[in-house]
Amino acid sequence: MQPPYAITLDVGSSRANKTGAWRVERPVYVDRLPPCNDACPAGENIQRWLYHAEAGDYEAAWRQLVDDNPLPAIMGRICYHPCESACNRAELDEAVGINAVERFLGDHAIARGWRFDPPPAETGRRVLVVGSGPSGLSAAYHLRRRGHAVTLVDQAEELGGMMRYGIPAYRLPRDVLDDEIERILALGVEVVTGRRIDDLAAEKEAGAYDAVYLAVGAQIGRRTEIPAGDSARILDALSLLHQVAAGDPPLLGRRVAVYGGGNTAMDAARTLRRLGATDAVVVYRRTPKEMPAHADELADALHEGVQARWLTTVKSFEGGRLVLEKVRLEGRDVVPTGEFEELPADALVLALGQDSDLSLVEKAAGVAVEHGAVSVDDAMETGAMGIFAGGDVVPGERTATVAVGHAKHAARAIDAFLRGETLAPPPRHPLATFDRLNTWYYTDADRQRRPELETARRRSTFDEVVGPLREDNALFEARRCLSCGNCFECDNCYGVCPDNAVDKLDLAASAAAGRHYAFDYDYCKGCGICVAECPCGAIDLVPEVI
Amino acid sequence: MTPTPIRFYQVGSFAVGNRLLEEELRTVQSDPRRANSLDRGHRACQGCGEALGARYALDAAVRATGGDLVAINATGCLEVFSTPFPESSWRVPWLHSLFGNTPAVASGVAAALRVKGRSNVRVVAQAGDGGTVDIGFGALSGMFERNDDVLFICYDNEAYMNTGVQRSGATPPAARTATTEAVGPEPGNPFGQGKDLPRIALAHGIGYVATATVADLHDLEAKVIKAMARHGARYLHVLVPCPLGWGSQSRDTIRLARLAAESGLFPVFEAEDGIVTSVRKIRHKVPVEDYLVLQRRFAHLFKPERRDEVIAHLQALADENITRYGLVAPEEVEV
Amino acid sequence: MLRQLEGSRAVAEAVALCRPEVVCAYPISPQTHIIEAVGALVRTGKLQPCEFLNVESEFAALSVAIGASAAGARAYTATASQGLLFMMEAVYNAAGLGLPIVMTLANRAVGAPINIWNDHSDAMAVRDSGWIQLFAEDNQEAVDLHIQAFRLAEELSLPVMVCMDGFVLTHALERVDLPGQADVDAFLPPYVPRQVLDPADPVSIGAMVGPEAFTEVRYLAHLRQLDALVAIPRLAEEFATRFGRSSGGLVSTYRTEDADTIVVALGSVLGTIKDAVDALRDAGERIGVLGITAFRPFPTDAVRAALARAVRIVAVERAFSIGFGGVLSTDVALSCQGLPASVHTVVAGLGGRPVTRRALEAVLHDAAAGKLGRTTFLDLDTIVVERERARMAADRRSGPMAENILRDLATSAASPHAEEGR
Question: Do C66 and B101 touch (CB under 8 A)?
Answer without folding.
Answer: yes
